[in-house]
Amino acid sequence: MNKKLFAGVMVLILTITCAVAQPQLYRTAIGLNAGYNYGITLKHYLTDKNMVEGIANFNYGPGITVLYEFNNRHPFDIDELDWYYGAGAHVKFINGRRANVFYNDLGTHINIGIDAILGLEYTLKDVPLNLGINIKPELNFTADNLIWFDGALTIRYVLK
User: Fold this and answer.
1) Are 134 and 119 in contact, with CB atoms under 8 Å apart?
2) Low-confidence ranges of the chain (pLDDT < 50)
3) What pLDDT is stored for residue 59 in this prediction?
C-alpha cells in the first residue's frame, strides 16, 4: 500500500510540473539533494516568480516533499543568482530499524508534516547546471521528533 501511495504522489508531482511556464534562467531542472534527507530534487517554474519543487527522500526510508516557492531575482546584481523562499508538506515512511535513534520501536512510522524553505541558487550560463544551498525546517505532526532542521546542497541539470 505504501508503494502505491508513493507512486501516486510522484505522478502528481510530474503532472504539476508539466504546466506552462516562462522563467528567466530555466524552466525545469532535476538533480541531487545532498542534505540529511538526501534524495532527488525536481524544480519547475510555474510563472516567472513561482516555482514548485519536489524532493524524493531516501534517508531512513522513502519520502516525498512538495514545496511551493517564490523566486527573487538577482541579489547583489548577479544575473545568474536567485534567492527563494516557500513552504510545503512532506510524507515519509521511516524504517525504525534504520532510525532507532529517533524511535522507541523498530516498526515503520509514517511521518507527516509541513516544511519551510529558504535558499540561494546559481544557474550557469554556458553549462546546463544549477547549484544551490538551502535551509529547510520541518514541523512533524506524527513523529517523535517534532521539529527538525534540514538543509542541503543541490546540483541540478537544467532541462530548459
Assistant:
1) yes
2) 8, 11-23
3) 82
For residues 43 and 155, what is the distance between their CA atoms, to the nearest angstrom? 11
User: b/e per residue, 128-149, with b = 16+ CB within 10 A?
Assistant: eebebebebebebeebeeeebe
Provide the number of structural domains found in the chain.
1
Whole-model pTM: value is 0.78
**Angstrom distance (rounded) from CA 151 to CA 96:** 22
- What are the backbone angles phi and psi of residue 15, rounded to the nearest 5°? -70, -45
How far is residue 14's CA from residue 34's CA, in Å, rounded to a whole number? Answer: 21
Quick one: cell of 58?
531516501
C-alpha cell at 102: 529517533
Q: What is the CATH number of the domain that holds 11?
A: 2.40.160.20
Task: Say if residues 148 and 137 touch (Cβ distance below 8 Å).
Answer: yes
